[in-house]
Specification:
Elements lengths: L13 E6 L2 E6 L4 H17 L6 E2 L3 E10 L2 E10 L3 H11 L2 H15 L6 E9 L2 E10 L5 E2 H7 L4 H20 L12 E3 L5 E3 L13 H18 L5 H14 L7 H20 L29
Antiparallel strand pairs: 1-2, 2-6, 3-4, 4-5, 5-7, 6-7, 8-9, 9-10
């Protein structure tokens, strides 16, 4: 298990445990019993729905859980990947559960030098060899915000906003320069730290590796463009250009094709936004992520002990 980019030297050793029908793989500095308790806390949040979770939808949910272990307070992001029917079961049987893929994605990302929250544990519940649900526990970054929220707070700060957008283009460009394709580059999968540094989420999407084609480059930039048009229609043309310029700086071989890449990404985004406009927004779960109003106090850690 790769612990993410905690910056503390060699990763802690990994241990395996079983609690009932739950198979757990966890860092040695975290007990299996704490993993079980964290999962139970998230299950309670998940039953309450989106208001109790950081993310909530038909395929997965995530909430913040604080638990005491000895003298330490563990601040965790606990993510549940739900049962996805027969097709999902076949995919999990062929590729590994989404938790196992998240572990592999974390290892791939570390090779690119792109940041991600440190992985703490993964767990699976199976029946007759079929994955019913899987779990990913990582360190919660209390001072980080999803990209849409961060952009909303910088609406009136042009220079900082453009620096952040350039960082987005740089991150995607870094991935693509390393030949890594992330097929779900929506803004809610990008965390912005207090210093403006970015971290990438939903790392199960990195496994299995996909060959980085021109169409996948267009899709990645088109996804970001589509969400920007839907969530931040107030962004200027110069704001949008900052993303592409930083992306091309990481992929200099594409400099001569930059205009074509931009045009195709915009066309992709226009088609996607048109598709979204025909849907009932009430059916879209947590998409698009509604930014919390700037200055709204953050929620306390659910389950935090005094």
């Amino acid at each position: 298990m790769n612990p993410g980019h905690a910056g503390n030297g060699a990763p802690p050793p990994v241990r395996r445990a079983r609690r009932g029908d739950l198979a757990i793989e966890h860092r040695a500095d975290v007990s299996a019993d704490l993993v079980v308790e964290a999962i139970a806390r998230h299950q309670a949040h998940d039953r309450l729905g989106r208001e109790a979770c950081e993310k909530w939808g038909p395929g997965s949910s995530l909430s913040r859980v604080g638990l005491a272990e000895g003298t330490l307070l563990r601040d965790l992001a606990v993510k549940l990947h739900r049962w996805r029917g027969l097709r999902g079961a076949l995919s999990d049987g062929w590729r590994g559960s989404r938790a196992v893929r998240a572990r592999g994605g974390c290892e791939r990302l570390a090779q690119c030098g792109v940041d991600s929250p440190a992985l703490v544990a993964i767990a699976e519940r199976r029946r007759a060899g079929i994955v019913l649900e899987s779990w990913v526990l990582s360190e919660f970054r209390a001072n980080a915000q999803p990209l849409p929220v961060a952009l909303a707070t910088l609406a009136a700060e042009r220079q900082r906003r453009r620096e952040l957008l350039a960082a987005v283009g740089d991150l995607v460009g870094t991935l693509h320069a390393a030949g890594v394709d992330h097929p779900d580059l929506k803004p809610s999968n990008l965390l912005v730290g207090a210093d403006g540094a970015l971290a990438l989420l939903d790392l199960d999407a990195l496994v299995p590796p996909r060959r980085l084609t021109w169409r996948r480059r267009v899709r990645a930039l088109g996804q970001l463009e589509a969400y920007a048009r839907d969530l931040q229609p107030w962004l200027t043309r110069t704001d949008h250009v900052r993303v592409l310029r930083a992306y091309l700086a990481r992929n200099p071989s594409l400099q001569g094709e930059g205009r074509q890449l931009a045009n195709e990404a915009v066309a992709w985004a226009v088609r996607r936004v048109a598709e979204w406009s025909r849907r009932d927004r009430g059916e879209r779960g947590h998409y698009p992520l509604a930014p919390r109003p700037p200055g709204e106090p953050s929620r306390p850690i659910p389950g935090r002990r005094a």
